[in-house]
Specification:
The chain has 234 residues and is α+β, with helices and mostly antiparallel strands. 29% of the residues lie in helices and 16% in strands. The chain has seven helices and eight strands, in the order αββαβαααββαββαβ. The strands form two sheets. It has a five-stranded mixed sheet with strand order 5-4-8-6-7, with helices on one face.
Length: 234
Protein backbone atom coordinates (compact mmCIF):
# COMPACT_ATOMS: atom_id res chain seq x y z
CA UNK A 1 0.00 0.00 0.00
CA UNK A 2 1.39 3.36 -0.99
CA UNK A 3 2.10 5.69 1.91
CA UNK A 4 -0.21 8.67 2.19
CA UNK A 5 1.40 11.99 1.27
CA UNK A 6 1.62 14.55 4.07
CA UNK A 7 -0.30 17.68 3.03
CA UNK A 8 1.89 20.71 2.44
CA UNK A 9 1.07 24.35 3.16
CA UNK A 10 0.98 25.07 -0.58
CA UNK A 11 -1.92 22.63 -0.89
CA UNK A 12 -4.03 25.13 1.08
CA UNK A 13 -2.69 28.34 -0.46
CA UNK A 14 -5.84 28.87 -2.51
CA UNK A 15 -7.86 29.15 0.71
CA UNK A 16 -5.48 31.24 2.81
CA UNK A 17 -4.13 33.83 0.38
CA UNK A 18 -5.53 37.23 -0.53
CA UNK A 19 -6.56 37.68 -4.16
CA UNK A 20 -5.59 41.37 -3.99
CA UNK A 21 -2.00 41.17 -2.73
CA UNK A 22 -1.31 37.45 -3.39
CA UNK A 23 0.14 37.09 0.11
CA UNK A 24 -1.12 35.15 3.11
CA UNK A 25 -4.30 36.62 4.59
CA UNK A 26 -3.36 39.01 7.40
CA UNK A 27 -6.28 39.92 9.65
CA UNK A 28 -8.64 38.10 7.24
CA UNK A 29 -11.78 40.16 6.75
CA UNK A 30 -14.93 38.82 5.10
CA UNK A 31 -17.46 40.76 3.04
CA UNK A 32 -20.79 39.70 4.58
CA UNK A 33 -22.72 40.21 1.34
CA UNK A 34 -20.80 37.59 -0.68
CA UNK A 35 -18.52 35.92 1.92
CA UNK A 36 -15.29 36.62 0.03
CA UNK A 37 -12.29 37.19 2.28
CA UNK A 38 -9.29 39.51 1.93
CA UNK A 39 -6.57 41.04 4.06
CA UNK A 40 -8.06 43.80 6.18
CA UNK A 41 -5.82 46.54 4.80
CA UNK A 42 -6.26 45.31 1.20
CA UNK A 43 -10.07 45.42 1.23
CA UNK A 44 -10.20 48.74 3.08
CA UNK A 45 -7.85 50.26 0.50
CA UNK A 46 -9.96 48.80 -2.32
CA UNK A 47 -13.16 50.32 -0.89
CA UNK A 48 -11.59 53.76 -1.02
CA UNK A 49 -12.13 53.63 -4.80
CA UNK A 50 -15.01 51.19 -5.27
CA UNK A 51 -18.11 49.85 -3.48
CA UNK A 52 -17.94 46.51 -5.32
CA UNK A 53 -16.39 43.25 -4.16
CA UNK A 54 -13.07 42.91 -6.03
CA UNK A 55 -13.63 39.18 -6.54
CA UNK A 56 -17.25 38.82 -7.69
CA UNK A 57 -18.19 42.41 -8.53
CA UNK A 58 -21.33 42.54 -6.37
CA UNK A 59 -22.17 45.94 -4.89
CA UNK A 60 -21.39 45.59 -1.21
CA UNK A 61 -23.10 48.78 -0.04
CA UNK A 62 -24.36 51.87 -1.82
CA UNK A 63 -22.54 54.39 0.36
CA UNK A 64 -20.41 52.72 3.03
CA UNK A 65 -19.13 49.21 2.19
CA UNK A 66 -16.95 49.19 5.31
CA UNK A 67 -20.12 48.52 7.29
CA UNK A 68 -20.33 45.09 5.66
CA UNK A 69 -16.93 43.78 6.76
CA UNK A 70 -16.32 41.24 9.50
CA UNK A 71 -12.97 40.17 10.93
CA UNK A 72 -12.60 36.36 10.79
CA UNK A 73 -10.65 35.42 13.94
CA UNK A 74 -11.14 31.68 13.37
CA UNK A 75 -9.55 31.79 9.91
CA UNK A 76 -6.73 33.93 11.29
CA UNK A 77 -5.90 31.26 13.88
CA UNK A 78 -6.00 28.51 11.23
CA UNK A 79 -3.56 30.43 9.01
CA UNK A 80 -1.18 31.02 11.91
CA UNK A 81 -1.23 27.29 12.67
CA UNK A 82 -0.64 26.33 9.02
CA UNK A 83 2.19 28.78 8.31
CA UNK A 84 5.12 28.37 10.75
CA UNK A 85 6.49 31.62 12.15
CA UNK A 86 3.88 33.86 10.54
CA UNK A 87 2.30 34.96 13.82
CA UNK A 88 5.65 35.85 15.38
CA UNK A 89 6.73 37.72 12.25
CA UNK A 90 3.54 39.78 12.18
CA UNK A 91 3.71 40.58 15.89
CA UNK A 92 7.32 41.70 15.62
CA UNK A 93 6.63 43.88 12.58
CA UNK A 94 3.70 45.47 14.40
CA UNK A 95 5.91 46.25 17.40
CA UNK A 96 8.59 47.68 15.11
CA UNK A 97 6.00 49.85 13.37
CA UNK A 98 4.66 51.37 16.58
CA UNK A 99 8.17 52.05 17.85
CA UNK A 100 9.03 53.75 14.59
CA UNK A 101 5.75 55.65 14.62
CA UNK A 102 6.33 56.95 18.15
CA UNK A 103 9.78 58.19 17.19
CA UNK A 104 8.27 60.34 14.42
CA UNK A 105 5.70 62.32 16.38
CA UNK A 106 7.24 65.55 15.09
CA UNK A 107 4.82 65.47 12.14
CA UNK A 108 7.02 63.80 9.53
CA UNK A 109 5.17 61.17 7.55
CA UNK A 110 6.01 57.50 7.70
CA UNK A 111 6.82 55.62 4.55
CA UNK A 112 4.65 52.52 4.68
CA UNK A 113 6.54 50.67 2.03
CA UNK A 114 5.56 47.16 2.97
CA UNK A 115 2.21 45.49 3.07
CA UNK A 116 2.76 44.26 6.61
CA UNK A 117 3.31 47.76 7.95
CA UNK A 118 0.13 48.91 6.29
CA UNK A 119 -1.72 46.21 8.18
CA UNK A 120 -0.33 47.51 11.46
CA UNK A 121 -1.21 51.05 10.49
CA UNK A 122 -4.82 50.05 10.04
CA UNK A 123 -5.10 48.95 13.66
CA UNK A 124 -6.75 51.31 16.11
CA UNK A 125 -5.45 49.55 19.20
CA UNK A 126 -2.63 50.25 21.62
CA UNK A 127 0.98 49.25 21.12
CA UNK A 128 0.33 45.75 22.43
CA UNK A 129 -2.45 45.30 19.85
CA UNK A 130 -4.96 44.20 22.47
CA UNK A 131 -7.94 46.29 21.37
CA UNK A 132 -10.80 43.90 20.78
CA UNK A 133 -13.54 46.45 20.18
CA UNK A 134 -12.70 49.05 17.58
CA UNK A 135 -11.69 46.39 15.05
CA UNK A 136 -15.25 45.02 15.13
CA UNK A 137 -17.49 45.82 12.16
CA UNK A 138 -19.65 48.82 13.03
CA UNK A 139 -23.35 49.28 12.38
CA UNK A 140 -25.56 52.36 12.49
CA UNK A 141 -28.89 51.99 14.30
CA UNK A 142 -31.89 54.26 14.76
CA UNK A 143 -33.60 53.69 18.14
CA UNK A 144 -37.23 54.74 17.77
CA UNK A 145 -39.79 54.90 20.56
CA UNK A 146 -43.20 53.32 20.00
CA UNK A 147 -45.15 56.29 21.33
CA UNK A 148 -48.46 54.47 21.04
CA UNK A 149 -47.32 52.26 23.90
CA UNK A 150 -46.27 55.11 26.18
CA UNK A 151 -48.67 56.11 28.94
CA UNK A 152 -49.91 59.68 29.10
CA UNK A 153 -47.47 62.09 30.71
CA UNK A 154 -44.42 59.90 30.05
CA UNK A 155 -41.62 60.88 27.70
CA UNK A 156 -39.39 57.96 26.77
CA UNK A 157 -37.89 59.37 23.57
CA UNK A 158 -34.14 59.74 23.15
CA UNK A 159 -32.79 63.20 22.33
CA UNK A 160 -30.29 61.53 19.99
CA UNK A 161 -31.77 58.36 18.56
CA UNK A 162 -28.97 57.47 16.10
CA UNK A 163 -26.09 55.38 17.47
CA UNK A 164 -23.10 53.62 15.96
CA UNK A 165 -21.69 50.55 17.67
CA UNK A 166 -20.20 47.11 17.18
CA UNK A 167 -22.32 44.68 15.17
CA UNK A 168 -21.68 42.17 17.98
CA UNK A 169 -23.65 44.22 20.51
CA UNK A 170 -26.65 42.29 21.82
CA UNK A 171 -30.23 43.40 22.39
CA UNK A 172 -29.61 42.98 26.12
CA UNK A 173 -26.89 45.64 25.92
CA UNK A 174 -29.20 47.93 23.92
CA UNK A 175 -31.82 47.59 26.67
CA UNK A 176 -29.28 48.56 29.33
CA UNK A 177 -28.22 51.54 27.21
CA UNK A 178 -31.82 52.68 26.83
CA UNK A 179 -32.56 52.25 30.52
CA UNK A 180 -29.52 54.36 31.40
CA UNK A 181 -30.22 57.11 28.87
CA UNK A 182 -33.93 57.28 29.66
CA UNK A 183 -33.32 57.06 33.43
CA UNK A 184 -35.82 54.26 33.81
CA UNK A 185 -36.44 52.56 37.14
CA UNK A 186 -34.96 49.11 37.67
CA UNK A 187 -38.49 47.65 37.65
CA UNK A 188 -39.23 48.98 34.16
CA UNK A 189 -38.73 46.42 31.40
CA UNK A 190 -38.31 47.21 27.70
CA UNK A 191 -39.13 45.34 24.52
CA UNK A 192 -36.89 45.91 21.49
CA UNK A 193 -38.51 45.21 18.13
CA UNK A 194 -37.44 44.99 14.50
CA UNK A 195 -40.15 45.11 11.84
CA UNK A 196 -42.74 44.59 14.60
CA UNK A 197 -41.10 41.42 15.99
CA UNK A 198 -39.72 41.34 19.54
CA UNK A 199 -36.02 40.51 19.55
CA UNK A 200 -34.39 38.17 22.07
CA UNK A 201 -31.88 39.66 24.50
CA UNK A 202 -29.06 37.50 23.11
CA UNK A 203 -29.62 38.49 19.47
CA UNK A 204 -26.71 40.50 18.07
CA UNK A 205 -27.22 43.52 15.84
CA UNK A 206 -25.49 41.67 13.02
CA UNK A 207 -27.91 38.75 13.36
CA UNK A 208 -30.92 41.08 13.37
CA UNK A 209 -29.65 42.98 10.35
CA UNK A 210 -29.03 39.83 8.31
CA UNK A 211 -32.19 37.90 9.30
CA UNK A 212 -34.81 40.56 10.05
CA UNK A 213 -33.93 43.95 8.61
CA UNK A 214 -32.22 43.16 5.31
CA UNK A 215 -34.61 40.42 4.26
CA UNK A 216 -37.89 42.02 5.31
CA UNK A 217 -39.66 45.28 4.67
CA UNK A 218 -37.88 48.51 3.83
CA UNK A 219 -34.21 47.65 4.24
CA UNK A 220 -32.89 51.19 4.02
CA UNK A 221 -29.94 52.26 6.13
CA UNK A 222 -29.54 52.69 9.07
CA UNK A 223 -31.39 49.79 10.64
CA UNK A 224 -34.37 50.86 12.75
CA UNK A 225 -35.03 49.22 16.12
CA UNK A 226 -38.14 50.21 18.05
CA UNK A 227 -38.51 50.05 21.81
CA UNK A 228 -41.41 50.24 24.24
CA UNK A 229 -42.10 49.70 27.93
CA UNK A 230 -43.17 46.12 28.51
CA UNK A 231 -46.89 45.89 29.20
CA UNK A 232 -47.60 44.40 32.63
CA UNK A 233 -50.72 42.29 32.67
CA UNK A 234 -50.36 41.45 36.36
Amino acid sequence: MAAQRTPLVRDFNHFITCSLCRGYLIKPTTVTECLHTFCKSCIIQHFEDSNDCPKCGIQVHETNPLEMLRLDKTLEEIIFKLVPGLREKEEQQEIDFWRKNKSKENGQGDSLGSKRLRHSDDEDGDEDGQDYHRSDPQIAVCLDCLHSNVRAGEDTGLMKKFIRCSSRVTVGTIKKFLSLKLKLSSSCELDVLCNGEIMGKDHTLEFIYMTRWRLQGDNTYPMVLEYRPRIDFG
